[in-house]
Write a structure and sequence with these properties.
alpha+beta, five-stranded antiparallel sheet, 9 helices, 9 strands
């Protein structure tokens, strides 16, 4: 995605958090703007965004032919269906791509009114490839979450879709372990270790309220937050 990166070290040093705003009326949830302090190559930086970008590479340093060469007879229709079902999103992305740096700065000024154009520059922070797969009806559907893909023998695993956050990363790693190390996951040693690391693993907190309250109370204690049992 494309971000505005601060060039003024004095401004960067005054910020120490990730601060979310609200998406503009009609914009998709994934466009929620935020001011984000990041440590990049050991150096503190300040970013604002995200802004949508577009190219035909599947990797940041890939080939511009990645997307054209991926088009097949069996995936043309699902891609077209996904586009038809997401016309407002498509229009939003086109508008984002056509934005100038001055227009991007106006978005930042809605968040920080006194931000100066000279203190920021637009930069690409990474490359995201959106997943399109068939739904239960066989139509192409645009996916906004993450999806783990593994080879049949479990020797290779990849994560597709959105960048994982703290709320999804544990579940993602458990999926990788289950698919790539199925035999070891069934051993007593691995199960004992997993139960220590993830006490709720293979236990439905929705069906077991007692276990749910135990986990919440320990989490609240660690975070020094008040706790009230359900």
């Amino acid at each position: 995605g494309l971000w505005l990166v601060c060039k003024n070290r004095e401004i960067i040093d005054r910020h120490h958090a990730k601060i979310y705003g609200k998406a503009s009326i009609g914009d998709p949830p994934m466009s929620v703007p935020h001011l984000d302090t990041r440590i990049i190559n050991g150096k503190k930086e300040l970013l604002f965004g995200p802004y949508a970008g577009f190219n035909t590479k599947f990797l940041k340093n890939g080939s511009f032919f990645d997307f054209p060469l991926s088009v097949r007879a069996n995936n043309c229709i699902p891609m077209l269906q996904a586009g038809i079902d997401n016309v407002p999103l498509t229009i939003y992305l086109i508008k984002q791509i056509l934005m100038t740096d001055r227009q991007r700065m106006k978005k930042l000024n809605m968040f920080i009114p006194n931000a100066e154009f000279e203190d920021w520059k637009a930069m690409f922070a990474g490359q995201r490839v959106q997943i399109i797969k068939k739904d239960a009806q066989g139509r192409g559907s645009l996916q906004f979450g993450t999806e783990v893909v593994t080879s049949q023998d479990g020797s290779l695993a990849a994560l597709l879709g959105a960048s994982p956050g703290a709320s999804t990363v544990v579940n993602i790693m458990l999926q990788v372990l289950e698919r790539c190390f199925g035999d070891k996951m069934n051993s007593n040693d691995w199960r004992d270790k997993l139960s220590q690391m993830v006490p709720s693993y293979k236990c439905s907190l929705e069906d077991n309220i007692t276990h749910f309250n135990e986990r919440r109370s320990k989490t609240a204690q660690t975070l020094q937050m008040p706790f009230c049992a359900i």
